[in-house]
Design goal:
3 domains; four-stranded antiparallel beta sheet; alpha+beta; 3 helices
């Protein structure tokens, strides 16, 4: 009789071969066959995750945070795995990420250099503020207006 289509599982067709009584599917050009339907599904799960883990995300506000994508749910949410824990990226948070691209590394380094410079300038501004000779308004009020300062 030949092959009988059983179902499409995560984008891969699972069929049953009536000649040898085995389930099978074709993934990445490889023919997976097994006596067990569940084993074929497990093989697809393994290959599915392996195939899907081809890209990473970078958080826009924390450029040093790179998040691997290990899957996608039936509802279309990306699945991340950090320290063995899987999480979904809510669609409202997708705008907070960009697809990781190695070519962005010089840009990321430049952004970090600018951020470091801004931090350094902030410290310099604080030092200069402390050097200001003018007295505070509350001190002026105490000395010149003879009023009690209320906080």
């Amino acid at each position: 009789m030949g092959n009988v289509f059983i179902m499409n599982y995560k984008g891969f067709d699972i069929e049953f071969n009536t000649d040898n009584s085995k389930f099978f599917s074709c993934i990445k050009g490889e023919h997976l066959d097994n006596n067990s339907f569940e084993e074929v599904k497990k093989s697809i799960d393994y290959c599915y995750d392996e195939n899907f883990c081809k890209f990473f995300l970078r958080e826009k506000n924390k450029l040093d945070v790179i998040v691997p994508i290990v899957g996608i749910t039936k509802a279309g949410y990306f699945v991340t795995e950090i320290e063995g824990r899987r999480n979904l990226i809510d669609r409202s948070r997708e705008a907070h990420y960009v697809i990781y691209n190695e070519e962005d590394e010089p840009i990321v380094q430049e952004i970090q250099r600018i951020k470091d410079k801004i931090t350094e300038l902030g410290h310099e501004i604080s030092i200069q503020h402390k050097r200001l000779k003018g007295e505070s308004v509350s001190d002026y009020r105490k000395k010149h207006l003879k009023e009690e300062v209320k906080n």
